[in-house]
Amino acid sequence: MDPAVAGGAVAGEAAAGGVAAGGVEAGAEVPEPVNRLDAALARARSEGRAALIVYVTAGHPDLAVTRQLVPALFAAGADVVEVGMPFSDPLADGPTIQQSTQKALARGVRLAGVLDLVRDLRVQGVDGALVLLTYANPLLARGLLDDPSPLAAAGLDGVIVPDLPMVERGRAEAAFRAAGLHLIPMVAPTSSPEHVRRAAAGRGGFVYCVSVTGVTGARKNLPDELPAWLDRIRAAGPRPVAIGFGVSGPEQARALAAHADGVIVGSALVERIEEAARDGSSTDEQARVRAVVDAATAFVTALRQALTGNRP
C-alpha cells in the first residue's frame, strides 16, 4: 500500500475520544451489526470455501452498465461486491483503477449518484452484500463519518476507507455500528502487531489484508511470505480475513484461499470491463452492455470455480 495511505487506515495507532452523531460516544460498546455481509461470509464458510469479493468502479464505463453488471456478478458467483466511489486522488489505487475512476468522474459520477445506484439495485431486488470503497474526503464533506446512516439507508452493508487514520476510525466506528454498517479495517505487511490485533478483534465484517506495499493492480507474482503472514493475521483474532491487492486470476485466488476466509479481486476485473467496453460496438448500446457483462461474468465464474471447496 502507498506510504501515504499506510499512514492512515493501515498504520496509525492512536486511540480516540469524542462523541459521534446521535450521541454515540467513540469507543462506546456498541454491538457489531449482523447484516448481509456477515451472511455472505458465513454462507461461503458453510460451503467449505473462501468467499469471493469483487470490486467494480461505479460509473465505469457508465452507471447504466454498472446497474446491470452488479446483479450479473452476484449471479456468476460473487459473494460480495465492492462498489468503488470515483475520487480524484485515489492514493491506494494503481493505474487500472485510477483510469476507471477518472472516466467515471468525467461522466459526472459523484457520491450522490453512487448512493442512487445502490438504492436502485436494492429496488431491483439485489440482496447480495454491497460494500462501498471510498476515500475519506467525500464522507467528511457530507458529515458521513459522524452520521453514516444515509449509507445504510441506501442499502450498503459495509464501508472501506483506505486513507482513514486510526484516530478518525476510533471516532467513527461506534456510529457505523449503530447504523448497522461494518467499517472494514485494513492491515498491510508493514502494520504493527498492535494494529493487527485491533483489526482482528471482533467477529463482524472482515479484515482487508493488503498483500503488498504499494498500490492496487494485478500482479503475476505475489510475495512468497504472503501465506504465512495471512496465517498470522487469522490467528490474531476471530474476525474473518480477506486478501486483496494484486490477485490476478483463478490460480492465485485458489492458492490464497487456503490461507484466507475471502479473496478480493479488483484490478483484474476492471481490466476486463475496460477491454470489453473499448472493443464493444459504439453504435449498439445493448451490444456494448452485453459485451461488458459477458466478459466480467465469465471471469467471475472462473474465480468462483477456483474457490469451490478450497477453504481450510
Automatic annotation (TrEMBL):
Q: What is the superkingdom listed in this entry's lineage?
A: Bacteria
Keyword Amino-acid biosynthesis attached: yes
**What InterPro entries does the record tag this protein with?**
Aldolase_TIM, RibuloseP-bd_barrel, Trp_synthase_alpha_AS, Trp_synthase_suA
The active site lies at E82 (proton acceptor), D93 (proton acceptor)
**Amino-acid biosynthesis among the record's keywords?**
yes
Q: Keywords, A to Z?
A: Amino-acid biosynthesis, Aromatic amino acid biosynthesis, Lyase, Tryptophan biosynthesis
EC annotation from Swiss-Prot or TrEMBL: 4.2.1.20
Q: Any idea what job this protein has?
A: The alpha subunit is responsible for the aldol cleavage of indoleglycerol phosphate to indole and glyceraldehyde 3-phosphate.
User: What is this protein's record name?
Assistant: Tryptophan synthase alpha chain
Q: Which gene encodes it?
A: trpA
